[in-house]
Design goal:
By secondary structure, the chain is mainly alpha-helical. The chain is 74% helix and 0% strand. Keywords: Membrane, Transmembrane, Transmembrane helix.
Amino acid sequence: MVPLLLVLLLALLLFGFGFAVKALWWIAVIVLVLWLLGFVARPKGSTGRWYRW
């Protein structure tokens, strides 16, 4: 019974980790797209950066 619970716990941890990594990849792709759109959509008269960092 204990080995079965350990295997189920390990599977649950790996599934949670995989889901978190996949979610982080989607967030990274969305941020990259927004960052690239910022270069395309910046004002034409300005030669500076479009962000205020």
